[in-house]
Amino acid sequence: MTKMLVTGGAGFIGANFVHYTVNHKPDYEITVIDKLTYAGNQANLAGLPEDKVTFVQGDICDAELIDKLVSETDIVVHFAAESHNDNSLRNPWPFVETNIIGTYTILEAIRKHDKRLHHISTDEVFGDLELDDPNRFTETTSYEPSSPYSSTKAGSDHLVRAWVRSFGIKATISNCSNNYGPYQHIEKFIPRQITNILSDIKPKLYGTGEQVRDWIHVDDHNSAVHLILEQGKLGDTYIIGADNDHVNNKMVIELICELMGKGKDWYDHVNDRPGHDMRYAMDSTKLRTELGWEPQYTDTQTGMRDGLLQTIDWYKANEDWWKPQKDAIEAAYAKQGQ
Ligand code: NAD
Ligand code: DAU
User: What is the pTM of this model?
Assistant: First the structure.
């Protein structure tokens, strides 16, 4: 058995990763550490076998706790972060604290106990591309983050690289594009629109909706993370993306409307996000050629129809999970004309 510490395992991608691991990788015993911020929910881990998954509520900035947990594990998969751009524009401090100081705290424990780390990061560290730019982000694209969120993620990536080079820690990094799927917090674009329609509220599109996000189903992200854990080269970075960089926000909202039985244009245009990144596009050639990774959600049209149908069904079946937060989230957006 390999012992794995998963930070942020009660959040969207982390919880899906824990489920994925229990279902596909029987050789892991998992400890989740999660602060249970507004974005974390222990219910995301309900039903998992107790002999496989242990939950610890705690903060990754708590050096004593992190030191103990890292000393007891073989590998750390580091998802914990403040993750929402819009929140980082309202109050950047928690982003600096968790994403930078939290990652530093984990790195120091990894260094002391000589354990393996995989650091989860984002395409947003590269900034954005023009809408008509045919280029894609690669492992060597320079960093140019736009928001407090993405700049703190960029800082965390630099810390990991510095600890690899200066102290020789055993670490890999992955930068992934926008995920969607079950358990995603309803502040985010896709679940916000699905739960709007389920609440008889029109979906809300920022600005013109021309912005492109290279969407990937969360299970495809997590299968890539496992491959990197198993076969990734220590010290290396891997881009993860599913080739959906032809899909803009307007197309996604129209597809959600169609799949949920609404007219294609049953949505509102609302205020744009300040500093809104225009286009993300990922070149995952290295991951595909060196490690043989392939995404599973690759249907035609937008490349998202099957994944969106599964995601819509999940939100329909789990109203108790999202309903209690819906009014407060929409009220916060409404204050900003969004
Ligand atoms: P999320 O906001 O849904 O979950 C984050 C989790 O981290 C929550 O459970 C929260 O309680 C926990 N957390 C926050 N601060 C903590 C702290 N100080 N100590 C311990 N736990 C803490 O985020 P997500 O969308 O699941 O993103 C997970 C990771 O993946 C992040 O590192 C994010 O940058 C990265 N990422 C996300 C996407 C995406 O599309 N969502 C894409 C690429 C990379
Ligand atoms: O690219 C990876 C990143 O994707 C991750 O690093 C972040 O953690 C994750 O939150 C996500 O960031 P985005 O800012 O791209 O995701 P969000 O879901 O907030 O918005 C997606 C796009 O949809 C973006 O262009 C803004 C737009 N949008 C968002 C909301 C909430 C709308 O048009 N309407 C909305 O209501």
Answer: 0.98
